[in-house]
Structures are given as C-alpha cells and as structure tokens.
Request: fold
Amino acid sequence: MSFDLKITGGLIYDGNGGEAIRANIGIKDGLIAEIGECSGDAKEIVDAAGAIVTPGFVDIHTHYDGQVSWDQELRPSVNHGVTTVIMGNCGVGFAPVKPDDHDRLIRLMEGVEDIPGTALHEGLSWNWETFPEYMDAIDAMPHTIDFGVMIGHDPLRVYAMGERATAFEEATDDDIKLMQSIVTDAMKAGAAGFSIGRTDVHRTADGDWTPSAEAGLRELTALSSTLADLDHGVLQIVNDFNLEREGDQFDEEFEIVEKFVRAGGGKPASISLMQRDMAPNDWRRILDETERLNKDGIEFHVQVAPRAIGVFQGLQCTFHPMMAQPSYIEIKDKPLAERVAIMRDPAFKKKCLAEEPVKLAGEGSSVPPIADTMIAALELVANKFFRLGENPDYEQSADQSLGAEARRDGVTAKEKLYDTLLELDGKQLIYFPIYNYTEFNYDNVHKMLTHPAALPGLSDGGAHVGTICDASFPTYLLTHWCRDRDHDRLDLSRAIKFLSADGADYLRLNDRGRIKVGLRADLNIIDHNKLRLGPPKMVQDLPAGGQRLLQPVSGYRATFVAGQRVIANDEVTDARPGRLVRFG
Reply:
C-alpha cells in the first residue's frame, strides 16, 4: 500500500489501556490504514524513535464558544495534544441570540468565564441568530483541531424569555415549549448535548446570577427530556450545591440533578467534581451518589482535574491581593510599569498597607463575593498562596507558602504579598489553589482521577484567561502524575486512555480516541522524557488588545489531526484540518 504519511519507530499507546507496542503507523486519506510493518512507500515519513505515539486527546470541557469564531489556532489546547474539544459547557454560550441581546450574552460570558468583553465585542461576528446558524458560522472557518458544541441553558433562556430570564421568573408553558423546540433543532443540527449551570460563583459582569441558576425543576426536566428520543447527546452539569447559602442543601440540589438526568432517557451525563474547603467532604458525597446512579443503570460521570482548581494572581491578572486597597484602586488603570514604579515608593507602600480594603462584590460588579472573603482573610489565605517557579510546582507543602515565608521573615502576610507582586518587574504570578488543596497535597485528587466514573474535564480552555491556564491539564497529567510525582503515580497507558478513549466513548465518538485501523489519524508524537511545562506568561493577543495567560510547553514533536500535522516541535503549523463535529 502507498501511504500519505508513515510514522515509524514509535512506542504506541493505542488508547485501550494495555501494554504499549513498537510499530509503524501508515496513514491514508486522513485515516489509520495500517499498524505494523507498513512496508509500502509514503509521501512523508516521520521518525518517532525515542518517543511515544498516542491518540489525539479529547477535552470535553472548554469554553472556546467565542474564540472559535475568530481564531483558527485554538490555542492553548492545540499545544497540549488535544485534537477534539467540546464547547458550550456550564450553561453559557453565544447562541441562540437575538440582535438586541448581543451585549447581554457578552456580559454573561465576561463575568462567568473571565473573557474580556472588549475582545468579545471586537472578535464576535454575530452572523447568526439560531443555534444551527451559529454552528454553520463557526464551521465556515478552518481550524487546527476539531470542535463540538453543546447548547447552553443561559442563552437559550434569554432567547425564549428576554428580560424575564434574568429576573429569575419561572418559565411558562409557552416558554418551555419554545426552548424545547430550540434544543431539538440544535441537536438535530449536530449539537453534542445540553448543559446547565447552577452555581453561585458564576456571575455576569454586572454581578447578577446567571439566567439559569435558579431555573425550576419542571423547566430543567422538560429540556433534558428533549434528548430522550434522540440517538445521541450528553448532559453536562455544574453545581456547587448552594454552599454559600444557609444550611446544607446538598440533598435537595442533587435530587434536582438526578431528576434532570433521568428525564434525559438514559443519555450519558457528567458533573464537575472538586474538593472545596468550605465543604471538604462534599466530593465524597458526589461520588457516593454517582456510584448509586450507575448501579441503577444511569451512566453518570464526574469530571475531574489533575491538579487544584486554582487561579493566578498578579498585577497583570484579573485578581490580586491589593486590588481592594483604596490607594491601589486609584492607580489600577495605569500601565504596568507606572504602577510598579508607584508601588515601589516606600510612602505609597506604607499608606496602601495601612488601609482597610473596600468591598468589591455586589450589584454592578462581576467580582464574586468569595474575592471579598479572601481579601478580608489574607493572613489566613496567604497560607495557600505560592510561587510556582521556573519549573512550575503545583503540589507544594504548606511551609512553602507565602504565608509561611512571611512568618519566617517577620513581616505580615499582606506586606509579603505586596512585595511579591512587584517581583519580576510586576510580572510575578501568585498561585492560589482554591479547590482540591484542602490538605495541601493531591492525595484526594488521586482518588478522583482513579475513580471508575471519572472523566478528564474542567480545563476551561478559552476561559478565565486572566486567571488560569488549565488547558495544560493533559501535559500536567503526563508529567506530574505519570513521571515526576514521588508516590501514587498513574500508569502511563491508563492515563493516555483517560485523555483519549474515555472522553470519546462518553461522547459516542466512535471514529477517534484510539489508534486503530479505520479510525481518524488524530495522533500525538511525544518525547515523554523531555515533556515540560514552563511558567505561565501573560500575552496580549486577543482582539482589541485583550490579554490571556499561555503556558509554554515543550516535548510535543508532532500532533496530527486527520493526518495533517498541526504541531511541529511544539509550534503551530499552517495546517487547518479542524472542523465542527456534528453529532448524530
């Protein structure tokens, strides 16, 4: 046989979780044509000696809903071995939308997912109204990698109910019928599924709860039931179980989750899983309920992250410890270099540190209440603030924290944080692992990752661009968990299955996720011994000069999408084989 491409000499992990084999891979017309000797000639031969060959990774939890309409590269996911992403998570998105609601949805995404509103205003073309029109619009632009999209509850509710959607009114029968018809049309056009968001942490840029946050059970079950008779579709849920409110509402909220999922007629479902300090055992309760549902025949998964759900703080970032100080507020809009120069003045520092912080959250503010809580307790919270260093260490002990450093230096935590923000000419980043770090280690994360119902999720690629860079999760899993951690490491073959086949199986994507003859040639060639993450850097490459965090990575010799090379030695190529995945 004559091949378009032949990959030779690599150690192949096929995505099934078994032993690796050393073999060649022959690719023809974007598909894997042969695995073995592959003795035929080829237009191109890529030497994978000394490297591992894996299926392309499937990321089921991203927020490229806006970026996909203007950006062909879909960084940073493409830089970390991901060849298929799913957008539209957490109930947010940009379709369907009426012309008068463009700004409303931008304010929603700006608040919930920390994407600069100026970038969205300039970048979004808005050449759609219905969800199928949105799908056509984003499919018209070539991209590096494939992408699927779920329809989210928030834009759906705004489209059907207008102002009443954000006034938390109950949906009428007519509202529900209209929303059902829109979901049905979206699913028939190839949407991946339907997502909802029920969390107090998610706020619009105006400080309001999201439109779907308080939607009633009748509405939720009616919408999930539209998937019941279809041959495809998944249900995605984010829920913090009203932790910021009075009393324990876990059972009440999980009952809503269960009824929502059951109304979907057996469609696969997943919920975000993490350990929160204010309810450190809720993650175990979620796993208990997950096991109960699966024993009862409901395919219910938990989306887990391979490290803390954390944020970066810094003078370039969305949040930092001095942001509520009145003196800092007076200079916050000045260029970075000017702010740094002012803050280095001893008189300014003394005045700023002596001030009481002002309240930032509230009506008209996108700052979540948790930010005020953290700032008010800096002396305590600083015990979970860390520098990552040039070789980022996300699993540090408590005595490595900035709080511990302040005590050793005989200064207040507030002063230590102030000085740290000025390091590297004001570009120092402080890592704050908010969730998944209650015990200052990842032992509980290990339990989450190895649970049989676990799926890789929560990377939020394309979102929270001023506070996180978690699209690097696949690389972190392969390095920290499979190579560098000093205990409870994960088997490399199992980790690769987790990143590839498990997500594909959940989505019922039978054409990818494994290295097998007849499947798509979505592949990675990775120098696992040299695979490395660098410290995140703030770059200004979004529309209107918007900024985002990107994390340098090395070790990806090649990534192929449908047989075309989109990454060559860690750099994005000019190939654009990525398309919209239409399900069903």
Residues 173-188 form the longest helix (16 residues). The radius of gyration is 24 Å. The chain has 21 helices and 25 strands.
